[in-house]
Each structure stands twice: as structure tokens, then as C-alpha cells.
Amino acid sequence: MPITQIKSDFLTEIEKATLKTRDQEGKPIGIKVTVLDPCFNEFSLFLKKWNMKTTSIYILHQDWTPVLLENNFKENQKLDIWSFRVNEKLYLLLNSNESQEIEESKELKNSTVVSKMKKDEDVKE
């Protein structure tokens, strides 16, 4: 997640300070977050901040395999990531544009079925 693409500040001051901290090997220390997939399955991952040459990015680090297997995410697929807190605990929700498109497609299909049914009723009368 490039920091330049983040639309609102979602971290506390303590979390920001933690993400700036490095371990003895110079690797960034992360904060544990609960990640929800589009079906609201929960995964425990670490949010870390990596400093690149010209910018910084946040990454979700740990074992992505369960998230990928559960959701069929594809390489280079874009996700909207929403943050919220429950009892001060940070959650991140992965919103797949594909799931949105599927829902919109279902709604369109349903509206087509409804309009056909209505026309059929009109014909009967």
C-alpha cells in the first residue's frame, strides 16, 4: 500500500512509532492486525512499513497463503483496503473489486428477471 495512495490517517501515534522501529537486524517491526477478506473471514497478519528509494509503503506480512486460497486473489489484482477499530484494535478489510462486480452483475440479472416477470404479468391482464 503506497503511503501516497492512503486517503486517511488510520494509525495511532504509538502504532506509527512502532512501525518506524527496527529490530537488531535492521528489519522493520510490525504491528499485529486482523485482516478480513471480502467474505469476512479473519486472518492474523502483521502490518509493516518499508522505506523505498523515493517513498514508503505499508505491507501486510506473514503467511498470505490462507488468504489467497480462500479468495482466489490474482497477481496484480487491485483491492480496496478499509480500516476500522473495535475496542481500539485495528482491523483491515480487503474489498475485492471483483466481488463488487459479481454483486453488481447479480443485481443486474435480478433486475432483468424482475422486469421480465412484470412484463409477463402485464400480458396476462
Question: Which helices and strands occur, and which strands form pairs?
Answer:
Elements: H1 13-20, E1 31-36, E2 42-51, E3 56-61, H2 65-71, E4 79-86, E5 89-96, H3 97-124
Task: Explain how this protein is built.
With 125 residues, this protein is an alpha+beta fold. It has one domain (3-96): At1g16640 B3 domain (Beta Barrel), CATH 2.40.330. The protein contains 3 helices and 5 strands. The chain has helices spanning 13-20, 65-71, 97-124, and strands at residues 31-36, 42-51, 56-61, 79-86, 89-96. Strands 3-2-1-5-4 form a 5-stranded mixed beta sheet. Residues 99-125 have low confidence and may be disordered.
Descriptive terms for the model:
At1g16640 B3 domain; disordered C terminus; 5 strands; 5-stranded mixed beta sheet; 3 helices; 34% helix; alpha+beta
Query: Strand sequence of the main sheet, in spatial order?
Result: 3-2-1-5-4
Mean pLDDT over the full residue set? 79
Question: What's the helical proportion of residues?
Answer: 25-40%
| Largest sheet entry | 5 strands, mixed
How large is the count of helical segments?
3
Taking all Cα atoms into account, the compactness measure Rg is 21 Å
CATH architecture, by name, is Beta Barrel
Helix/strand class = alpha+beta
Order of helices and strands: HEEEHEEH
Overview in brief:
GO terms for molecular function: DNA binding. With about 120 residues, the chain is an alpha+beta fold.
